[in-house]
Write a structure and sequence with these properties.
The protein contains 13 helices and 15 strands. It is of the alpha/beta class. It has one domain: TIM Barrel, CATH 3.20.20.210. A 7-stranded parallel β-sheet has the order 1-15-14-13-12-11-8, with helices on both faces.
Length: about 425
């Protein structure tokens, strides 16, 4: 039977992952992450995420053998874990767990985005999109609804039964709830388009306030339902927060009940990437003033992504429960480190473009990481290097392997 053949494949992969998860280095890395996230770093930490997996398989080790589609998802995760551990582990932690996503139904914002695909690599998932404006007036805003959240307990039970049958005796199986992400302007961008949204900030700010208010009502309503129904993720399973280690001594909060996780037991990440070219005043008025109550509900906050925040740290620093701030490739390292000081983690996003050129420029990578490390050392700023958004390595995985070596050398120096 195909299922039995698939099961044999998965159990062998799971045994390999389980052996790695039992190595003493895993607890050593957890302790290092807890130290960094508690603002007591022993050294900078390094992570690699959002990988162009379609370009990695040069030896067949990532090729899927399972026939069942549900089982192929487990296989892909296990194979990628093994591949990353072998070739570019940096400070990843391999857990002895299989997490099964709960069958949570989310009705969404009531909108259907319209888009055009402009360009992309057909072998990968990264494409260029143009979004069509569907939020042009107040009538359109009436279409924004509060998502209806529910849990299909029977489907969750079925998924758990499948996973337990597959991995029994090798790895523990645990259900995984929802980990909210406070991205207000990313969906607005998809519903309105980047240009239209930016022009509206200047041309019709009152309309934008009404739009943002409707979106926040929807997000808050969704979050309330997740919390009330016990559908947030188990705080003990939240190992990553926006591509970085989430291990923290402060979480979960006191009196935690695993079956009823609360916002205050968890990290939340937030961002407003579209505001890269928006003034600090507008950033405050149209983003931070709205999302502040959400951040206040959570235990710890990670803020930012690709947007340069080094000139906005005076307002960002006022975010409740803020712990990590993203410092994109377009930030000034010295200004960012000085602004963050010892109070927040400098979550450095080294430039993935260095892996995407005609050739791999090792010196550029070394200089970038050294500059950031030196700036943070001068100001006593906790630091992590997070390489993400890796759209391409020009089908040369060795570039990524070498980047990992260079980054660990920078972190350990």
């Amino acid at each position: 039977m195909p299922y039995q053949d698939d099961k044999a494949v998965l159990r062998e992969l799971a045994r390999e992952v389980a052996e790695i998860s039992a190595l003493p280095v895993q607890e050593e890395k957890r302790a290092l992450w807890r130290g960094l996230n508690g603002l007591r770093p022993r050294r900078p930490m390094v992570m690699i995420d959002q990988i162009c997996w379609n370009e990695m398989d040069r030896d067949g080790s990532l090729a899927l053998r399972c026939e069942d589609e549900e089982l192929r998802r487990y296989e892909a995760e296990l194979r990628q874990t093994l591949f990353q551990w072998e070739h570019f582990p940096v400070d990843m932690v391999v857990e002895p767990l299989i997490t099964v996503q709960k069958a949570i139904n989310n009705g969404g914002y009531g909108l259907c985005k319209r888009e055009e695909i402009l360009a992309g690599d057909l072998r990968g998932s990264v494409v260029s999109r143009k979004y069509i404006d569907i939020l042009k007036n107040d009538d359109d805003l009436e279409n924004i609804t509060v998502p209806s959240v529910s849990h299909d307990t029977a489907e969750t039970a079925r998924r758990l039964d499948v996973a337990r049958d597959l991995f029994d005796g090798i790895m523990e199986v645990r259900p995984m709830g929802s980990a909210p992400f406070m991205q207000l302007w990313d969906p607005i961008t998809e519903y309105k388009g980047v240009e239209s949204a930016l022009y509206a900030l200047a041309d019709d700010p009152e309309f934008v306030h009404r739009m943002v208010s409707r979106m926040m009502r929807s997000f808050t309503g969704m979050l309330d339902q997740l919390e009330e129904q016990g559908l947030l993720c188990d705080a003990r399973l939240q190992k990553l927060i926006h591509c970085t280690g989430a291990y923290a001594d402060e979480l979960p909060a006191p009196e935690y009940e695993p079956g009823k996780p609360r916002c205050k037991d968890l990290w939340i990440a937030g961002l407003a990437q579209m505001f890269s070219n928006v003034s600090a005043g507008m950033h405050q008025d149209f983003e931070l003033d709205y999302v502040r109550p959400i951040f206040a509900r959570f235990g710890l906050v990670y803020y930012g992504c690709c947007d340069p925040l080094d000139r906005k740290l005076d307002i960002v620093a006022k975010i409740p429960n803020l712990r990590k701030v993203s410092m994109s490739p377009w930030t000034h390292a010295e200004r960012g480190a000085e602004g963050l000081g010892r109070k927040f983690v400098f979550s450095s996003k080294p430039n993935p473009a260095f892996l995407a050129g005609v050739s791999f420029n090792e010196d550029a990578v070394k200089n970038e990481l050294a500059n950031i490390r030196e700036a943070c050392d001068r100001h006593g700023c906790p630091l992590e290097f997070i390489l993400k958004d890796i759209s391409t390595v020009k089908y040369e995985p060795a570039r990524l392997f070498r980047w990992a070596e260079i980054a660990m050398e920078a972190a350990l120096s």
